[in-house]
Specification:
By secondary structure, the protein is an alpha+beta fold. 44% of the residues lie in helices and 27% in strands. The protein contains 4 helices and 5 strands. The longest helix is centred in the middle third of the chain and has 29 residues.
Length: 136
């Protein structure tokens, strides 16, 4: 998985790269009509061994392995969705009233997000980005 970016700062041991994150529907022919397409500029601080090999305004390619990208998708989207469905179904089967089911389902999601926050440093260590000059 790759993104094209631009080096905005070179520091000893790292480079700051700005990438344009575009939603999947941005490439749709009708995206300008529906208003759902979005793009955001993101800044990444990527550790490198040879920061002197990069210059400000240089176009670079930022990579993460496909395996790690899929793991990130599971952590950010699939597991929370499964948690919401499982909690709502389980709490409904117990016979709790709907408002209580909704409240406890959101509480379960909040606990999941708190757990992610507490483990953020450990999780971040599993997602190593690499950067290289863009070759075209």
């Amino acid at each position: 998985m790759t993104h094209e970016g631009t080096v905005i700062a070179v520091n000893p041991g790292s480079v700051k790269v700005q990438i344009l994150s575009v939603s999947a529907c941005a490439s749709c022919a009708a995206h300008s009509k529906c208003g759902f397409a979005e793009s955001k500029e993101k800044t990444l601080d990527i550790p490198v061994d040879n920061s002197s090999a990069f210059t400000v305004d240089e176009k670079v390619e930022v990579r993460i392995s496909e395996e790690r990208g899929l793991l990130a998708t599971w952590i950010a989207y699939i597991l929370p969705a499964l948690l919401i469905v499982a909690a709502a179904v389980a709490l409904s089967l117990v016979g709790l009233p709907e408002p209580t089911v909704i409240l406890l389902t959101f509480a379960a999601l909040a606990l999941y997000l708190l757990l992610l926050y507490l483990l953020r440093h450990k999780i971040n260590n599993n997602f190593t980005l690499s950067v290289s000059p863009l070759t075209r």
